[in-house]
């Protein structure tokens, strides 16, 4: 079991969350080239080690979190809200 | 010279103190140059080397394995073999593989204990029955065997299932009679023995740490045992494909690495005669090994991971699903539980293909389904490497299909690896 320390809800079991994959992926503009869309939709770094990833607290506050986690050891080293304005307001 | 195994030699060995057994593969040191290097000494890598040597007469081949033979996913799977696929690209490939399975023990002169005991996909709702009817009808149109067992027939074949479950009422099952299980270690050992007999070097404890490039092509590998050059290099390292692809200069691939758990119980007398699958609503599959252990599994852990250990919530889910369809095994003790890491591709289907880098070939993206593909994968990968063109069975399993919008998405889940 992973424990994810949600900024709103506190430490919670990962089963309350839905994993949403690599957080470094940014979707390009709608009129961007097919190559850019292809890369954003299909290609992943898939590192063996530190990974920046999205977790959706679907059975909690429903926030999207950006979690820094090691894919080999599962150690979590950082958690923040994905929505930047809310993260700022919470400071 | 390779020792043939047959009934007479078993009898003779029994009468002479079992002293006739010979070592079937050695511990060769790498030569400076090979015609082909296969990275990865799992089932797929060994099968590739075997078919390169047997079908394409390319015998100056090395298989480089970081750990030991079959120590990765080849030794961690739930041993299910089937070809009940619906979508072009998968259909012809998995049926090709199943046909190779049917003659594999004879071909390798090694008993891989392939048992065509049927793969039984339970259905619980009328809509699920309709969807499965479509799939199995399409299979039949493609020449793959498939049939429907109504509840009466299913009760005759599988009397121990829970037919009184109000929440998950078993209506019947879609069945592939030619599907079944095989002994996973025997498959690796059989391919390793047969490949060695044809001159292939199997080099264990040899980790590939980098690639040697020359004029844009890959011409060799750097390993823990020094540099080794080769005309062609094939990667068959599912689970760790992305790690090696970055080293080779292939860049990002349409893969996430996830882990999948498997479980085996204490040995029982025969109770599960087929491979039984509780799919759609839950996710659970179970068969019984020749030793009597119930071998079963369920969902992925559903987050990127290279850790070959599973977590408890999935464990609990799998046991809960088991209790829904087979409550009679509730008191049975678990003997072992483990996890393997796998390439979850963006459409749930694999690729066996040339790459944009001359001299480099890729076999990856096997998701849950690598074991059943072992002979087909090796056969097609060897063909692709030897002839620089795909076999007709893997012509659809390209890497370009994502860019071209021709994903082979059996479940229709889209580009979300954890859902395939």
Note down, in words, how this protein is organized.
The complex is a heterodimer of chains A (91) and B (420). Chain A has 91 residues and is α+β, with helices and mostly antiparallel strands. Chain A has one domain: Folate-binding fold. Chain A is built from two helices and six strands. Chain A has helices at residues 34-42, 84-90, and strands spanning 3-6, 10-13, 18-22, 50-56, 64-70, 76-81. Chain A is globular and about 40 Å long. In chain A, 16% of the residues are buried. The mean pLDDT of chain A is 95. Chain B has two domains: 25-109 and 184-254 and 347-419, FAD/NAD(P)-binding domain; 119-179 and 256-344, 2-Layer Sandwich (D-Amino Acid Oxidase, Chain A, domain 2), CATH 3.30.9. Helix content of chain B is 27%, strand content 26%. In chain B, strand 1, helix 2 (43-55) and strand 2 form a beta-alpha-beta unit. Chain B is globular, with a radius of gyration of 22 Å. The mean pLDDT of chain B is 96. The chains are: A alpha+beta (91), B alpha/beta (420). At the A-B interface, strand 3 and helix 1 of A face helix 8, strand 12 and strand 15 of B.
Chain-wise SSE layout:
The complex is a heterodimer of chains A (91) and B (420).
Chain A lengths: L2 E4 L3 E4 L4 E5 L11 H9 L7 E7 L7 E7 L5 E6 L2 H7 L1
Antiparallel strand pairs in A: 1-2, 3-4, 4-5, 5-6
Chain B lengths: L6 H9 L17 E7 L3 H13 L5 E4 L15 E2 L8 H13 L1 H5 L10 E5 L2 H16 L5 E4 H7 L14 E5 L3 E2 L2 H14 L3 E3 L4 E7 L2 E7 L2 E10 L5 H8 L6 E13 L7 E4 L5 E5 L4 E12 L7 H14 L8 E12 L5 E4 L5 E5 L9 H14 L33
Parallel strand pairs in B: 1-2, 1-11, 2-8, 4-13, 11-18
Antiparallel strand pairs in B: 3-7, 4-6, 5-6, 9-10, 10-11, 12-15, 12-16, 13-14, 14-15, 17-18
Write out the strand line-up for the largest beta sheet of chain A, numbering strands in chain order: 3-4-5-6
The chain pair with the largest interface is: A-B, 26 and 27 residues
CATH homologous superfamily name of the largest domain in chain B?
FAD/NAD(P)-binding domain
Spans of chain A of at least 5 consecutive residues whose pLDDT stays below 50 are none
CATH superfamily of chain A: Folate-binding superfamily
Order of helices and strands of chain B: HEHEEHHEHEHEEHEEEEHEEEEHEEEH
User: Residue-averaged pLDDT of chain A, rounded?
Assistant: 95
């Amino acid at each position: 079991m992973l424990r994810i320390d949600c900024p709103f809800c506190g430490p919670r079991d990962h089963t309350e969350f839905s994993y949403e994959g690599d957080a470094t992926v940014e979707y390009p503009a709608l009129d961007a080239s097919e190559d850019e869309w292809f890369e954003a939709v299909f290609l992943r770094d898939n590192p063996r080690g530190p990974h920046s990833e999205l977790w959706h607290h679907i059975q909690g506050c429903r926030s999207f979190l950006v979690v820094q986690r090691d894919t080999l050891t599962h150690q979590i080293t950082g958690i923040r809200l994905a929505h930047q304005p809310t993260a700022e307001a919470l400071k | 010279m390779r020792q043939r195994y047959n009934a007479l030699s078993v009898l003779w060995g029994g009468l002479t103190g079992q002293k006739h057994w010979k070592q079937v593969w050695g511990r060769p040191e790498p030569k400076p140059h090979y015609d082909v290097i296969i990275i990865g000494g799992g089932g797929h890598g060994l099968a590739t080397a075997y078919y390169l040597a047997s079908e394409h007469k390319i015998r100056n081949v090395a298989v480089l394995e970081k750990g030991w033979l079959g120590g990765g996913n080849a030794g961690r799977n739930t041993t299910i073999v089937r070809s009940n696929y619906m979508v072009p690209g998968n259909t012809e490939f998995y049926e090709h593989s199943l046909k190779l399975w049917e003659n594999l023990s004879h071909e390798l002169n090694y008993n891989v204990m392939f048992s065509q005991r049927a793969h039984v996909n339970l259905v619980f709702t009328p809509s699920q029955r309709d969807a499965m009817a479509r799939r199995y009808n399409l299979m039949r149109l493609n020449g793959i065997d498939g049939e429907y067992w109504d509840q009466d027939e299913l009760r005759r074949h599988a009397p121990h299932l829970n037919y009184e479950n109000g929440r998950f009422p078993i209506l019947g099952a879609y069945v592939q009679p030619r599907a079944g299980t095989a002994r996973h270690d025997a498959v690796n050992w059989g391919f390793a023995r047969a490949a060695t007999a044809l001159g292939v070097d199997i080099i264990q404890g040899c980790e590939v740490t980098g690639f040697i490039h020359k004029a844009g092509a890959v011409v060799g590998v750097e390993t823990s045992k020094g540099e080794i050059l080769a005309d062609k290099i094939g990667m068959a390292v599912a689970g760790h494909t992305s790690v090696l692809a970055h080293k080779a200069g292939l860049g990002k691939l349409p893969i996430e690495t996830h882990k999948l758990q498997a479980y085996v119980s204490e040995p029982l007398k025969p109770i599960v005669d087929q491979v039984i699958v509780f799919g759609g609503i839950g996710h659970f599959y179970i068969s019984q090994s020749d030793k009597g252990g119930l071998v079963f599994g369920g969902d992925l852990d559903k987050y990127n991971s290279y850790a070959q250990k599973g977590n408890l919530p999935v464990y609990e889910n799998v046991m809960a699903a088991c209790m829904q369809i087979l409550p009679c095994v509730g008191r049975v003790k678990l003997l072992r539980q483990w996890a393997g890491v796998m390439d979850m591709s963006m459409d749930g289907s694999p690729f066996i293909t040339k790459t944009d880098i001359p001299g480099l070939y890729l076999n990856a993206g096997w998701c849950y389904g690598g074991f059943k593909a072992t002979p087909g994968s090796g056969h097609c990968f060897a063909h692709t490497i030897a002839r620089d063109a795909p076999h007709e069975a893997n012509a659809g399993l390209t890497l370009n299909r994502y860019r071209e919008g021709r994903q082979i998405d059996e479940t229709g889940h889209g580009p979300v690896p954890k859902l395939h």
